[in-house]
Fold this sequence. Notes:
Elements lengths: L2 H21 L4 E14 L5 E10 L6 E2 L16 E2 L1 H30 L12 H8 L1
Antiparallel strand pairs: 1-2, 2-3, 3-4
Helix pairs in contact: 1-2
Amino acid sequence: MTRVTKLTLIGVVLVIAIALTLRSVNVEQIGPELVVYRNLCGLSGFDFCYKPVLKGGFPVAYLFDAPGIFVERQLEFFEDNLSVGALVLDVAFYFAIVLLTMLAVPRCRSAFKNPQAPAKHDAPDSSASGRFFS
């Protein structure tokens, strides 16, 4: 592979990995992490109220719902809490998966297109066997 081909491959894989990561925000889960959503709970009325937080991203959740801001129970990039470390980890995960797939598929295709012919087992030459028995 030439240098330009490698850089193009890495660029394409990075774009696909970022797209998959951003699309994975639709994989939503609730909890087990708790988040404060008001402060009028408990016997005294001044304790915090907790509820499970909505989070999105796969395999690691990177977007967390911020309660009390705009629409609750709906994830948005500009209004909710973003974990940059988890986002980078997801991009790295998808980058590795896509890169390994793009490198493995051409090799598998070439193996199926040009299977190596099995070695021919020639019958023993009759003139060679005659030397031992004459």
